[in-house]
Specification:
The chain is α/β, with parallel strands linked by helices and 529 residues long. The chain is built from 18 helices and 20 strands. It binds adenosine-5'-triphosphate and magnesium ion.
């Protein structure tokens, strides 16, 4: 869960999305979202209170530091509370779990012990994470039991929990089938069903069992599908399991998140290991996930990186559940900086300090690319995604670039030291982005506020050893900014904000972005407002 500061920053990100990026599309069967086009923001609730959620949930959300709903939450929650089926698509890290989870919790009748709702997820790790999120959301709802059922863990314990009553079940498909076959789980009262990562759940590996599961639920059930990617054929297929679905699509033209900078490295297959070590040394990620195509490749890379003296763990399906849990805990608790993983880590996982995603092997589809790189740049943070491709894969890389509609430039090493030299490459890129949006307008991040100040975001805070004096020093000594042009410096746990006279802001970014402060690379950019 994010702290208050994370939430604040997410707000900035989401407001931006509402202004520029919300689009309503026709549902698979021609049913459109209730909100008429062009009248977008007028009808969209700006607070959780306006969404119609119960008081208990509202209390929890403010305790969690969720100040405002994200766009997908603002749009999908009222539709779900109204009892309609929803196909929800929004970028990675945009709060889809709460978008389907909060209405689900308000749907539950606590006095009824039957399983009234369930969520299906493609992996055990995501099942555990969604369960934790749902439990956190249910903190002030008395008598709502949420039980996780997933493979690899002792089935007896899960059966015992189900016997005690589980109104909400979060499950992986195989284990759910197993429990149904053993009559430990009955779905005849499950009237609210969610497929998280729905395009994956409706893919070949799962579809047969998912169909069987859906057939066991009452026909009058409410069904919701959520994912950051929803290829058209999947949306059409989905419709056959739904009743009059409303499509709620909150995506910009790009499928990937703007706060993730994307680059590629062209590499000979035999040089891959050397190059990944070089990239890791240059980038100094706080934490990185390095994706491999196969389980064997994954263990091999873990061994090779360890042999090179790097601290790394591997996550793949050949490990026991105990091992998988151990790896996830040490990575989530920031005890190990590098995780080498297969695509079991590609979808849904929400890990706070992941600053880098490296595609050591090219993903099989552009959709998987979107999900993999979405493990960084979440909750308003920035991140970097670096993709390795061999000459033979150059075309595949281009396909990815075309489908995700985001530029993937050649990787360049970050600057080594706090240097005073201007850095035109970055400046140009910022201009390009501004150019995409056309002329500056209200809400344009580069525009000064009414006091003539511009707010800058710095990706380090107390946790990175940075204090107010360090930033002041970097601004005055490093970027030669006069002391009186600095209006305020706010250092938070994981990042900081600096407010400067507008005429100094560009210089600050130019001089300091990508340089090092107290031995760590800092990123500085104009905060969205
Ligand atoms: N309204 C909100 N305010 C602040 N933080 C939020 C809000 N909603 C969700 N979050 C936080 O945002 C993070 C991302 O949420 P979540 O995992 O649900 O994203 P997602 O859309 O499901 O992403 P993915 O496509 O990768 O699965 C979580 O840490 C969550 O606690
Ligand atoms: Mg998710």
């Amino acid at each position: 869960m994010p702290d208050e500061n994370g939430a604040e920053n997410l707000q900035e990100l989401t407001e931006d999305a509402v202004v520029e990026e919300v689009e309503e599309v026709e549902g698979a069967d021609g049913i459109v979202d209730d909100v008429p086009e062009g009248d977008d923001d007028a009808d969209i609730a700006k607070s959780f209170k306006d969404l119609g959620l119960s008081q208990g949930l509202q209390t929890t959300l403010s305790e969690l530091g969720y100040e405002e709903p994200t766009p997908i939450q603002a749009r999908a929650i009222p539709v779900l509370l109204g009892g309609q089926d929803v196909i929800g698509q929004a970028q990675t890290g945009s709060g889809k779990t709460a978008a389907f989870g909060l209405p689900m919790l308000d749907f539950i009748e606590p006095e009824n012990e039957e399983t009234q709702a369930f969520v299906l997820t493609p992996t055990r790790e995501l099942c555990i994470q969604v369960t934790q999120a749902m439990r956190a959301y249910a903190e002030h709802l008395d008598g709502v039991e949420i039980v996780a059922v997933f493979g690899g863990a002792p089935i007896r314990e899960q059966q015992a929990r189900l016997r005690h009553g589980a109104q909400v079940v979060v499950a992986t498909v195989g284990r759910m089938m197993d429990l149904i076959n053993r009559q430990s789980l009955v779905l005849t009262s499950s009237r609210y069903v969610v497929l998280d990562e729905a395009d994956e759940m409706l893919d070949l590996g799962f579809i047969e069992d998912v169909e069987k599961i859906l057939r066991m639920c009452p026909s009058g059930r409410q069904t919701a599908l959520f994912s950051a990617t929803m290829p058209a054929p999947v949306a059409r297929l989905a419709e056959t399991y739904m009743y009059d679905p409303v499509t709620v699509k909150v995506t910009p033209k790009k499928l990937t998140v703007d706060s993730v900078e994307q680059a590629y490295v062209m590499v000979e297959p035999r040089d891959k290991l050397e190059r990944v070590v070089e990239v890791l040394k240059a980038e100094e990620p706080e934490q990185a996930i390095i994706f491999c195509r196969t389980k064997i490749g994954c263990s091999r890379l873990e061994r090779d990186l360890s042999n090179k003296g790097l601290r790394v763990k591997a996550l793949h399906g050949d490990l026991s559940q105990g091992q998988r849990d151990g790896v996830m805990i040490s990575f989530k608790e920031h005890k190990v900086p590098l995780l080498v993983a297969t695509d079991i880590a590609a979808r849904g996982l929400d890990i706070e300090h992941v600053t880098h995603v490296i595609n050591y092997d090219l993903p099989n589809t552009p959709e998987i690319y979107v999900h993999r790189i979405g493990r960084t740049g979440r909750v308003g943070r920035t991140g970097r995604a670096i993709t390795f491709a061999t000459e033979k894969q150059a075309e595949d890389l281009k396909t990815i670039e075309r489908v995700v509609k985001a530029p993937i430039g050649e990787w360049e090493r970050p600057e080594e030291r706090l240097e005073h030299a201007p850095r035109p490459r970055r400046k140009e890129r910022r201009r390009d982005r501004a150019g995409d949006r056309g002329a500056p307008e209200a809400g344009d991040p580069d525009a000064p506020d009414s006091n003539g100040l511009v707010k800058l975001f710095v990706n380090r805070g107390h946790a990175g050893g940075i204090e107010e004096d360090d930033l002041r020093w970097a601004l005055t000594e490093g970027a030669v900014i006069p002391e009186d042009a600095i209006d305020s410096i706010r250092v938070m746990d994981r990042f900081s904000f600096v407010e400067l006279n507008a005429d100094q802001a560009e210089k600050a970014v130019e001089f300091l972005d990508g340089t090092k402060l107290k031995g760590k690379q800092i990123r500085m950019e104009v905060a969205r407002s």
